[in-house]
Amino acid sequence: MNENVDKYKDIIDLPHHESAERKHMPLYDRAAQFAPFAALTGFDDDVEETERLTDHRAEISEDRLIRMDEILNFFLLKIREQPEVEITVFEADEKKEGGSYRDIKGRIKRYDEHDKKLYFTDGRVVALESIVHIYGMEE
Prior knowledge:
Structural class: alpha+beta
Number of strands: 5
Helix content: 25-40%
Strand order of the largest sheet: 4-3-2-1-5
CATH class of the largest domain: Mainly Beta
């Protein structure tokens, strides 16, 4: 026999003691009492955030900016008709460097020249500085 088993041979088969005064604690509650000692609380969330990828915003050439301005002005001339436009915007990430690209399709309701923002009929608001592509632009 194993040396450790021989060491406790006299008590190994004794019945488990159960208190007559206290009720047996469920396993879930027993485990919960050690939760405050979890040294790496939040570690999984931090790892997940670090692994989340973001894109870097591509630089837009001067020629492309001019062309985007021309197309945007074309749509703004028809603002009373609430023209439908498809654009790609870059949204900066709130937690880390970079961001993500998102395509938006909708009808322009109005343009705020002071704030340089497009307001869509569905309530979305897009800052002109976030627009990186307007559908219909030749590459």
